[in-house]
Amino acid sequence: MSAAPPAVPAIEVQGLECAYEERIILKGVTFQVRRGEIFFIIGGSGCGKTTLLRNLVGLEAPVRGTVRFLGRPFTEADSAARREQLKTFGMLFQGGALWSSLTLRENVALPLEEHTALPRAEIDALASLRLAQVGLAGFEGYYPSEISGGMRKRAGLARALALDPAIVFFDEPSAGLDPVTSRNLDDLVRQVRDTFGTTIVTVSHELRSIYALADRLIMLDREAQGIIAEGKPEELAAGSPDPRVREFLTLSPVHGT
Amino acid sequence: MTSAPEPAAARATLQPAGDALDVALAGDWRLAGVQPSWIDLTAGVVLPARVRVTAEAVGTWDSALLLFLAEIAAWCRARSIPYDTSALSERMRVLFEQLEAASAANPALAPHAENFLVTVGNATRHVVGTARASVSFVGEASLAFGQLLRRPRKFRWKDCLDQMQQVGAMALPIVSLISFLIGLTLAYQAAVELRQFGADIYVADLVGLSIVREMGPMMTAVILAGRTGAAFAATIGNMRANEEIDALQTLGISPVSFLALPRLVALGVMMPLLALYANAVGIIGGMIVASGILQIPPSAYWIETKSIVDLHDVTTGLIKATTFGLLIGLAGCLCGLRADRSAAGVGRAATSAVVTSVLLIIVADSLFAIIFNLLHV
What we know:
The complex is a heterodimer.
Chain A: E1 11-20, E2 23-33, E3 38-42, H1 49-56, E4 64-69, E5 72-73, H2 79-86, E6 89-92, H3 104-115, H4 120-133, H5 149-160, E7 167-171, H6 179-196, E8 199-203, H7 207-213, E9 216-221, E10 226-231, H8 233-239, H9 243-250
Parallel strand pairs in A: 3-8, 3-9, 6-7, 7-8
Antiparallel strand pairs in A: 1-2, 1-4, 4-5, 9-10
Helix pairs in contact in A: 3-4, 3-5, 4-5, 6-7, 8-9
Chain B: E1 11-17, E2 20-29, H1 38-42, E3 50-61, H2 63-78, E4 83-84, H3 90-104, H4 116-150, H5 157-167, H6 172-196, H7 202-241, H8 244-250, H9 255-293, H10 298-308, H11 311-337, H12 343-374
Parallel strand pairs in B: 2-3, 3-4
Antiparallel strand pairs in B: 1-2
Helix pairs in contact in B: 2-3, 4-9, 5-9, 6-7, 6-9, 7-9, 7-10, 7-11, 7-12, 9-10, 9-11, 11-12
């Protein structure tokens, strides 16, 4: 951290305090995510990973603290400035969260329709390209209820990438997926980063994904109500002074597959 | 002859041994079976200095045995008698200790336990929160409507037309049936009274005015509150549970302009049309009664209706209908957007949308009655 990179970090979180239904979950959360990094937020169930993510992207208002994206304030920004910034994010929700009344193509096209002045034909072409990139070519006309959970997640990713975002957030990308589908999604995530230089923030407790992808991670803890470790997964697994961190990162990820 | 052995009844035998009391458990201890009662067993027993429990003759057992042990332990503690479970099997002892620890753990004040003041406070905050959300929703919807006027190309016309079909065209059968029956009923009620004075023809006046000014818009609104308001709340509530609303927000798309506005516009356009249609069907219902039992020819009924129902009667009805439609849309969308993220939450949102819309319709109707009376229309 001493040799700070010249570029502004993608995300700067300072003293964030998050609550869920008026119960304080996290206090004094401070961290930075560098550009082009695959950054994991890990921790046991109920430690506030998803709450932190929802606070980061503005779905919940933090109790206190600030979030800056690419050097610009987000939490204190007015709604117009926030809307501008939201165009630079993509987010993949746990269940995909596709709009059920729209086809896959319309799902991917919607952000483009809302935020660009592109003509219809170009929007459709871009939407088809995005779907092809996640391996869903030929499914453009399907509705979300007609495809499998894994495909829904990939379609969700296609939608998250629609506006060529600088930062993409993932909420438990491998939850509910079989190991092969989950690994394919991991490959897809890495591909996105390598191709577009996208900064990626992932909430997960899937050890396999953590080791396969994470450049750096923070670990949250329920009792500590905050970050108990920050660093590279391998280094933390080997040398973290905190036994909770070592235990979490060294448990075998295989459950008799 | 390999029939399963009959389960032996659970037994506990008390055996005084010096100053101690030996409790020998035997048989099969099953929660579904019958267990001996410790209270009955100890009735009349001389209080011992110690209690020792053995379970050598126990066959199969489950939590029933543990509960019995807990009963013994509680009895002993109440009398300050030491008890000894060391003769039990390892598995029994471990589980028994867990049970004791679990029941001994002093449960912290349950998060849902509330006293009166807290309940009142929470209810007040809920009301304030709902009022604030309603006001900001109306504000946001107005802004979105302003944007629609400025940039009509950005509006989701396809969704709006879909909704118009759902709200309007699909509701025609039920609106027809109910308005027809209302017209019929009004005419019957009026006929009985008016006939006594030979004023049969005034059935047309009564039916015409009350349908056009009151019953047509009102009944259409009540039907749509149940049909459309509930559907809006359920659809939007379900979208909220599926994080679809969150997905809109993270893309900087306002859920109000994306989801609520097309629905509000659809209701605002279709409600007056449906009310107009309901008026016509209601008047036909009255006409059928009049020609059937009062022998008033339809042409006379029609002329009488035309002479009493003015254009401004129709207009006041339509103003009401549009207002009711917007209220139904507001209640439905707002309840959906504020729904809890669960199946039960979606159900509650739908119910509350219907109740709120009907309440708002009645309140608005009363206000209209007062306003129209002041304006002499």
